[in-house]
Amino acid sequence: MTSIFIRKIFIHPLIRSSNPPSSAPHLPPRLRTYTTTPQPPPPSTTPPPTLKGWRKYAWQFRNKPASYVASFAILHELTAVLPIPLVYLFLDRTGVRIPIPEDAIAEGNRIVSKMRVRYGYEPLDPQNRVMVNLATSYAVVKVLMPARIALSVALTPLFAERLVGPVTKLFRRMVGRPASS
Fold it and tell me: Per its UniProt record, what Pfam families does this chain match (predicted)?
């Protein structure tokens, strides 16, 4: 029973020893063998011809992650900043009125007017809806965030290949060129 237990200990891969203890002289010493795992082949830069749909873009992202991340970040910020003035102009030109109590508008304009006077600008009229339209524009852009993210993800490959890639190549050529005398 004891020799079977000792034999199992020395055969177990996690508790393997090159020499058994001296209390078990009848067990032969085990030779330790070392093996290495084969290294995977280097990744290919040419995509397999069967990639279609989003897998094609995933392969392109794998080869140029910096361009794709930069493209997504630029597109995400553009879709956040550009709609604010557009929504504001829409609200201002069409006269769409967000239902907010007039006393809340007057109080908000009073606070904003104090700040404007402090920095040398003219105060706002108590019934002016500029701040309401600005806040509404900001809120609309925030509500549209899922659509903005989807649009940014959809346009990232095109933006990376058509704008970021060529600009990067141009920059590398300009920096890599020796200074002219």
Answer: FLILHELTA
